[in-house]
Design brief:
heterodimer, A: 531 residues, mainly alpha, 75% helix, 0% strand, B: 296 residues, alpha/beta, six-stranded mixed beta sheet, four-stranded antiparallel beta sheet, 34% helix
């Protein structure tokens, strides 16, 4: 019997379990690609208009930082340029979550033990997870490629584009497979793989924005950077996709070797014993929530400080380059802000930061649901602890944590930009303002999660769906020229740009919406069954 | 004196499933009350209603003289709960969980905690995810037993414990009872219930089917009789309460409803008893009789 016996049955099991999830990931990616292509066909119908766009992007560190360079002026190349970030995010997250779900998450929950005792080889669960994830990525590549070709783009290049995204997905799958061997805890596995993913984004960003004399090679160190280095529609370097495959294979081999070296349920990093008594800080539910959430909070906070600093340090080139180019000014306005260009840039950056902070906020809110479904809330609520108090102990994190993160991103960006132009004192305040103005919209997203948790706990997953819709509206809405009522659905549409005549109205309204949703959620929590 | 727990006509549905269907339960202050029933009978649901985690659809429930839903947090100060399936926070040590739960209940007796850790042979320095099922159970038990409370609600607390630890558990419960505490003990282990409980309630399909002291319940079940008689018996089969009669010459074997025992023995002695063995009913038989109805 080989160590792979049973892989086929496990593949079928995984496909059965993921029959809704995976098609949704693939579908969202494909639809995003197609709608971007068709929108660009209308926005930049002729070569001349695309040349103007490409020329301004090539000399602009800000856009280079966010979206990477444009390699050609064909419709395909411009589409691919705009798609890079979101395609990478979708394929990467899909792969990361799928691998973790079918390996460490199953193992931690003890389901793998049940399976491991049947006629199933040691490596079969991991192999099955890989087969399913790679399969999903190939489907994603083919559908995206064929879809883009259906928009009248060259078939070969379209497939290269699809497989560039899939390649990143498979690399992320391999990274997650290795991470799943290191820790016993599925949450830590997500944190490790997510950190690698985040670092890859930052490397690409700094590499692309660094200009001719800077460390442009950093992009080559980043799997996310390899997507643009594939140069779909501008040379189709299939060997870069090959490079992704080789990287993934090397990581897979490492993961396989690690599986053979450890026990079921264990990680490679052994757990240390803890204290025999609780310290003074573990004095109640608030102390407990701090213990449960602190590392996640610290990790995210550090990430945002770094992200802010990186964004701030590439911002200095923006002012000069933008001034002379009306086309770019207009484009930048579509992406975020108005009039003063640096404010527009910071506003656009902080808009993206706020979306990522919302991911943290939703995750920190839904920690309560995880505690509930794992029956860890029950013994707490069977003590002298009211439900609202218990909820409050967790809600500190989406509330205060989001504010802390936006502050750190704002401070990081403000200080970095201030250093560049020798005006730290003058810049920190306004950049920080650009960051904090996003807080009410972020809290609306967290409040949606809280409302679902209180009213319809089985459907808390819809809070991720809502956030995805907001992200897509923000990213694609302006390009697709979505109607205003649709754009208004997203709280982020209502965030005022600080360069405008700032009125507190929208901020107050967003805060009111957040409070109302939050109260509804808490009232629901008080009235519903636990478990 | 108000009973510690008094439940009547409790109904709770989950979608189409009727988990509780008019359940009654009374636990007198100071007693150890056994709560029995097959898997899925509604024991844990009842306990979770009593803890204010679930809201009953209809019926009344009183816990320590209060409303378990409306006054949950205040009432919980006076009770400790051990869930049937204990899950711990993977990154917290057992000792930390015990202290945390104790503090949340308003303080725990450090001396008693230390003594209990020793008696249950539990290493409090291990992280939650590294404990076996039995050890997780011990963490919850120590946390509950070390708290100074009036009422212990235990949902299959010994599942996963080895026989030695189960003996320790029995000692502890006996001591708690001596200290005047009330215990609601949901269990599948009948010897445990027989050893510890003053009264038991048996539930099935969300309803209470029997309740009373063990002696009262024994009356409801059958004694098996094996007798050698002087003459072949007549009319035995016609007597009320006689079941599964088999006769070979002058030897009879049968089961008899314990309530009819006296009349049947009189009938036997009329035929002249040469030898007689009788087996008192066990709780197990009583229990099986109710469980088997489910199997049919």
């Amino acid at each position: 019997m080989s160590t792979l016996t049973g892989t086929f049955s496990l593949v079928r099991l995984a496909l059965r379990l993921d029959r809704v999830r995976l098609p949704i990931w693939v579908l969202v990616t494909v639809v995003t690609a197609l709608s971007t292509a068709s929108a660009f066909k209308q926005l930049y119908p002729d070569e001349a208009s695309r040349q103007r766009v490409a020329a301004s992007i090539g000399s602009n560190p800000a856009l280079l930082a966010i979206y990477g360079p444009i390699y050609d002026t064909s419709l395909g190349a411009v589409t691919m340029w705009r798609l890079g970030i979101i395609g990478a995010l979708l394929a990467g997250l899909m792969s990361m979550l799928t691998i973790n779900r079918h390996t460490r998450q199953d193992e931690e929950a003890g389901r793998l033990e049940l399976i491991g005792a049947t006629v199933v080889g040691r490596h079969a669960p991991m192999a099955a997870a890989l087969v399913v994830t790679i399969g999903a990525n190939i489907v994603l590549a083919l559908l995206t490629g064929l879809g883009l070709a259906g928009q009248g783009l060259p078939v070969g290049s379209s497939l290269a584009a699809g497989f560039a995204f899939a390649g990143l997905g498979v690399v992320l799958a391999a990274v997650t497979a290795v991470a799943a061997q290191l820790s016993e805890n599925a949450r830590t596995v997500n944190a490790i793989a997510g950190t690698v993913f985040g670092v890859a984004f930052v490397l690409r960003l700094v590499g692309d924005a660094s200009g001719a004399d800077g460390p442009g090679w950093l992009t080559w160190l980043s799997p996310v950077g390899w997507i643009e280095k594939t140069r779909a529609y501008a040379g189709d370097r299939w060997w870069v996709i090959g490079m992704m495959a080789v990287t993934a294979i090397v990581l897979f081999v490492v993961a396989y070797a690690l599986v053979g070296r450890r026990d079921l349920g264990a990680g490679l990093v052994p757990p240390r014993p803890g204290p025999a008594d609780a310290g003074a800080s573990l004095n109640g539910v608030f102390g407990l929530a701090w213990r449960l959430q602190r590392w996640s909070l610290a990790g995210w906070a550090f990430g945002f400080a770094v992200m802010g600093y990186a964004m701030g340090s590439v911002a200095s080139g923006v002012l000069d380059l933008f001034k002379d180019d009306p086309q770019m000014t207009k484009m930048m306005q579509q992406l975020g802000g108005v009039s003063t260009l640096i404010d527009a840039f910071m506003s656009a950056i902080m808009g993206i930061v706020a979306l990522v902070v919302s991911v943290y906020a939703v995750q920190a809110t839904l920690r309560m649901r995880a505690e509930e479904t794992n029956f860890r809330a029950e013994p707490l609520l069977a003590t002298n602890t009211g439900r609202i108090r218990w909820a409050a102990s967790h809600l500190v994190y989406p509330l205060v944590g989001s504010a802390v993160m936006l502050t750190l991103a704002g401070l990081g960006a403000g200080i970095a930009y201030g250093i560049e132009i020798d005006d730290v004192g003058g810049q920190v305040g306004s950049v920080l303002g650009n960051a904090l103005v996003q807080l009410p919209a972020t809290l609306v997203v967290a409040a949606i999660a809280l409302a679902l948790f209180g009213l319809a706990p089985r459907f808390v997953i819809l809070s991720w769906a809502a956030l995805t819709v907001f992200v897509l509206l923000g990213q694609l809405g302006p390009i697709l020229q979505a109607p205003q009522w649709l754009m208004d659905v997203s709280p982020f549409t209502h965030v005022p740009k600080l360069t405008q005549q700032v009125s507190a109205g929208p901020l107050i309204w967003l805060s009111v919406v957040a409070v109302v949703l939050g109260v509804v959620g808490l009232v629901g929590l008080r009235r519903r069954d636990i478990g | 004196m108000t009973p510690a727990i008094s439940v009547s006509g409790l109904v709770k549905t989950f979608g189409r499933t009727r988990a509780l269907d008019g359940l009654d339960l009374t636990v007198t202050t100071g007693e150890v009350h056994g709560f029995l029933g097959p898997n899925g009978a509604g024991k844990s649901t009842t306990i979770r209603v009593l803890l204010g985690l679930l809201r009953a659809d209809s019926g009344t429930a009183q816990l320590l003289g209060g409303d378990p839903w409306g006054q949950a947090a205040e009432l919980h100060r006076r009770l400790a709960y051990v869930p049937g399936d204990v899950t711990l926070w993977p990154t917290l040590s057992g000792g930390e969980v015990i202290d945390l739960l104790g503090r949340l209940r308003g303080g725990l007796d450090v001396k008693r905690k230390t003594a209990l850790l020793e008696r249950f042979e539990l290493d409090p320095a291990k992280k939650g995810r590294t404990y076996s099922k039995g050890n997780r159970q011990k963490v919850a038990l120590v946390a509950a037993l070390a708290s100074d409370v009036e009422l212990l609600i235990l949902d299959e607390p010994t599942s996963g414990l080895d026989p030695l630890m189960e003996a320790v558990f029995r000692e502890c419960i006996t001591e708690e009872k001596g200290n005047g505490r009330t215990v609601l003990l949901s269990s599948h282990i009948l010897s445990e219930v027989e050893a510890l409980c003053d009264r038991v309630s048996i539930i099935r399909n969300g309803r209470t089917v029997e309740t009373g002291t063990l002696n009262e319940l024994r009356h409801l079940t059958r004694t098996s009789i094996n007798a050698e008689l002087a003459t072949a018996p007549t009319g035995l089969a016609q007597l009320p309460g006689v079941h599964d009669l088999s006769t070979r010459d002058t030897t009879v074997k049968f089961e008899v409803d314990t309530s009819e025992l006296d009349a049947v023995l009189k009938h036997l002695s009329a035929a002249g008893i040469r030898s007689l063995t009788s087996q008192p009913p066990t709780l197990e038989e009583l229990f099986l009789r109710h469980y088997e109805d489910d199997l049919r």
